[in-house]
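Priority: low. Protein: Alpha/beta hydrolase. Input follows.
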Amino acid sequence: MGFIKTNSKENSNSIELYYEDYGSGQPVILIHGWPLSHRMWDTQINALVNAGFRVIAYDRRGFGQSSKPFTGYDYNTMASDLKDIIDQLELKNIILAGFSMGGGEVARYIGKYGADNVSKAILISAVTPFLLETDNNKNAVDASVFDGMKGGISKDRADFFKSFGKNFVNFEKLNDKVGLAQVELNWSIAMQASLKGTLDCVDAFGKTDFREDLKSFDIPSLVIHGDDDAIVPFEVSGKKACDIIENCQLELIEGGPHGLSFTHSDELNKAILNFIK
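Result:
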C-alpha cells in the first residue's frame, strides 16, 4: 500500500521498500522468504488482523515490488532496511516474524539493534543459526550445495525455480494440501525478483553466521519448523536455534515441509496466535 524510502542509495536512486499495513493493535512485522515476496503471508495476514493485530508485510530489497539495486544483499544492510521501516512507521512493542531467509533478518536486527522495542520473536522454517558446515559448525550444509544453487540459477533461473518450488512444499507428497496453481504462482513471484539479488541472497542466507545474534535474544521466542523440511532441515536449523536462544519455545509441525504457510496454514496460524495472544 506504500513505499518506505530507506537510508541507502545506489548512485542517484533512492532504494525503496514496498509494504502493506493492515489492522490496528500491537504491530506484527512479517518478513518473507527467498525468493518470494510479502504475498506468501496472505493467510497469516488475514488471521492476525482478524485476531486484533496490526500487520506490516514488506518486500525485501530486490524482491516483489521493492527497488532492485545491484548491491546491499547482506544481512547488515537488510537489518538496516528493517530498522528504516520500524522507525519511519514509528512502530513500538513490535513482534518480529521471519520465514526462512527472513529469520535471518529477525536475528541480525536483534543482534545489531537490540530488543528494547521488540516484545517477541518468531522464526519459521528459518535459516538460523548457521547453515554452512565449517570446522566449528558440524552437521550442517556443505558449501557445494549453495554453489550448486547459484549455478542452477545462473544457467536457467526459470527451470531451477520450477523444481525448487515443488521441493519448497514437498509437492509430490502433499499435493492434497497445496495445488499446482499455488506452486506456479510462487514461481511467477520468484521470477519477478532481481537476478543479482536472487544470487547474492544465496550467499547471504547460506553463509551468514547468526549464532552470536541469537545469543542476544532476551525476549520470548518461538521456533516453528516442519519435521519434513527438505530445504532447511530441522536438525540443521530450528533445533540448533532453539538450543542457543535462552527463552525459546519450539513448535515442530508433523509432516511439515519448508513452505508451511502454503501447506499447513491452519497449524501455522494457530502456533503464531497461541504464542502472541
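The radius of gyration is 17 Å. The first strand starts at residue 2 and ends at 10.
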